[in-house]
Amino acid sequence: MNEGFAVLDHHSRFTFVNSRVLHSLSKEATQVNGKLLEEVVPEDVYKALRARMSLSQKDELPRTFEYQEKERGRWLEVRIHPLAEGTAFLLTDITFRKKAKSSLQHTLEETESHNTTLMKANETLDSFVHMAAHDLKSPINGLKSLLELYQSESNPAIQKASISRIETAVKKLDLTVTGLLSIVQFQGKGDRGTQEIRFDEVFRDLQEDFSEQLQAQNGQLAADFNEAESIVYVEAYLVSIIRNVVQNALKYKSPNRPPIIHLHTERDHDTVLLRVSDNGIGIDLERYGHHLFKPFKRFTNAAEGNGLGLYLVKNMVERNGGRLQVDSKLALGTTFNIYLKEYARTAVQSAGTPLA
To answer: pTM for this one?
Structure first.
């Protein structure tokens, strides 16, 4: 008989027990027969069985109970059947079923995750298609007209002006194509290995990269990382997140004052808040807030761009379990609060998952 079988009388004493039940209990027959249920099984199992036995005797319907033997790691199913002389138990090892269900659940979760990623990728491609239909058609038609004008015009001054306008149209096309490449590269990155990264080291590289631009604008780039000096994260993402936000601050600086950008970090359990503040032109959040992180969206002509920087930042932060929050006032400046979900220390040098 593959199943365990046992019978209890109305006083919850064992009157029969087969070898499968004895093996499961790790007991001899003399240690079980004639003994009370509470003397034989663990207290938590007894309480669960007792409650179901009472219900079965009351309504004369069978009950099922599952529990795990923690020491052995086995899962057992107990089916309780009321009898005229007491209660019968059927005991089945369902460990394989449980593992199969867990494996299936894991597969389903992975599939759902992949489907979500594909849906996001499709949304991105949809956005690009709409953008391309609008933004590419205009400069291409403009280029055609300018080339026709250039070819039909003999006046050198008008030809020179046409060339300048052609260069502008080509530059706009280049920005659009570069934007598409950025999206494709980001979507194709997948998960990278994690490591402990010091913010001051990333900051030093940024200072060097932006030194000429800061010097030309008489700007300042300062930081305070005392409250959170490092984070376990995907380095490529962290560098790109900080670079894009700083670049955005420099791009939309105020025309009335030199740019001042300040980075600050602080830790809250498994999250590091990266705060990036600037004194730039600010954003009208009431008007543009719901479009702020959408690709190919721009809200001012104060600087050239393709509207992808903040979109990429948001996607990188959220892909790694974090979130963004923005405060801004027109003509005063903007603060990006970037909540970075730190990876587990055990995930260092491996493609782990953010701390739950």
So the answer is: 0.51
